[in-house]
């Protein structure tokens, strides 16, 4: 390391990362204590501490109160997946958002929905089909069911101006959600709506939400080929 | 609320959730202070505090130091996505895991890979093709490239007994990763390996990792129809 200028905690952090990358300190190894490192680098112990703290936060090392700091064996095991409003997702791409409600009907909850949301036989739901467009190109076909027992206010909303996702965020927030993502082949209707060839591979995201134990909604969001859901750590 | 038994913080939490669900306290509303709630429910202020803390942790309410506690407008915006080893993912389903290395070769980095990982023209990579099975049924086809400049130890590993994911976790941990998920149609080779019909919709997960700024690996994981990636909040 250079000593021409004052050594910053970032310099220390880079050097520690380099040693871990080069396996000078292999996974599972205990790294020298802060005092030893401070002496080696000729810096204050607080500088070393800050570098080690940042490495610990990113999961590269693990700090144990008694046994010191170890290079992590399984450094990162979780990514955070943002759940954006589709409008914001489209706008974040710099594209113009447009929304179209295709259909709206109050219906008896279909069997699959009653099973999934544990609804009673008599349950009424609002069934909505919507299209979200980015620069006039179909971006997402949304098929949604809202539990009218949990969200009676939805009966009074046409969903012509505002999409159900955005409306629900303001009117029926959730405390629990389940997400599933899968690949499927576009059926005839979906293909027509998404302007793709029938049978093309589409990316399907499904979401169920609850508030205070009550099922709120189930939604299926279908995206045309080329759609990628991305995240990073 | 019942007063037959001692009121627990869970009772308070349920009641607060109910009021939020029923929009007695709508999104954005400031809820009564802890002292007022403690008086209303006839419990210690610490009991209310614990209930409110749990609601805040789940994102249903937001605590502001000066303005008190508000019902959240956008209650949950992120899910945590577990990134398990494929072996653990299969074992968690109660299925027997099996692994098969299909091919292994040191090659010049292909163009797409050099572009994605910003590798120099001369870069050598280890190209691996593997199959992961659950109860003898193909679960994931893995195609992977390992940057030999960053992980020279991979040259010495046959990957016949241990999958590259598991080996890398122990030998080249990452500090940064990018993930992408998409739907695709199975090509002829993939379809044969996964024992599905060519052109079927497959779920593709891609991952790139870095340690200390150095690209480690790029992997494409292809799953047969029916595969679902799930998470919850």
TrEMBL record, chains A, B:
> What are the recorded GO MF terms, alphabetically?
DNA binding; DNA-binding transcription factor activity
Under the heading Pfam families, the entry gives: GntR (PF00392), UTRA (PF07702)
Upper lineage: Bacteria, Pseudomonadati, Pseudomonadota, Alphaproteobacteria, Hyphomicrobiales
Q: Which domain of life is it from?
A: Bacteria
What is this protein called in UniProt? UTRA domain-containing protein
- SMART domains associated with the record: HTH_GNTR, UTRA
Classification via InterPro entries: Bact_HTH_transcr_reg (IPR050679), Chorismate_lyase_/UTRA_dom_sf (IPR028978), Tscrpt_reg_HTH_GntR (IPR000524), UTRA (IPR011663), WH-like_DNA-bd_sf (IPR036388), WH_DNA-bd_sf (IPR036390)
Keywords assigned by UniProt, alphabetized: DNA-binding, Transcription, Transcription regulation
Q: Which PANTHER family has this protein been placed in?
A: MANNOSYL-D-GLYCERATE TRANSPORT/METABOLISM SYSTEM REPRESSOR MNGR-RELATED, TRANSCRIPTIONAL REGULATOR PHNF-RELATED
**What organism, scientifically named, is this protein from?**
Nitratireductor arenosus
Where do the HTH gntR-type domain residues begin and end? 6-74
């Amino acid at each position: 390391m250079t000593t021409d200028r004052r050594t910053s905690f970032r310099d220390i952090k880079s050097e520690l990362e380099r040693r871990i990358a080069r396996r000078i300190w292999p996974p599972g190894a205990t790294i020298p204590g802060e005092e030893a490192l401070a002496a080696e680098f000729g810096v204050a112990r607080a500088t070393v501490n800050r570098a080690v703290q940042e490495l610990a936060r990113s999961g590269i090392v693990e700090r144990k109160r008694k046994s010191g700091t170890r290079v992590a064996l399984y450094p990162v095991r979780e990514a955070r997946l943002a759940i954006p409003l589709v409008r914001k997702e489209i706008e974040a791409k710099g594209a113009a958002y447009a929304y179209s409600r295709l259909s709206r009907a109050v219906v008896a909850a279909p069997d699959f929905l009653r099973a999934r949301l544990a609804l009673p036989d008599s349950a009424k739901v609002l069934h909505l089909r919507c299209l979200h467009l980015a620069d006039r190109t179909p971006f997402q076909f949304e098929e949604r069911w809202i539990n009218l027992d949990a969200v009676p206010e939805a009966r009074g909303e046409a969903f012509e101006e505002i999409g159900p996702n955005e409306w629900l965020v303001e009117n029926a927030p959730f405390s629990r959600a389940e997400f599933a993502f899968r690949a499927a082949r576009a059926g005839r209707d979906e293909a027509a709506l998404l302007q793709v060839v029938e049978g093309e591979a589409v990316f399907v995201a499904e979401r169920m939400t609850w508030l205070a134990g009550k099922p709120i909604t189930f939604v299926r969001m279908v995206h045309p080929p080329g759609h990628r859901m991305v995240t990073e750590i």
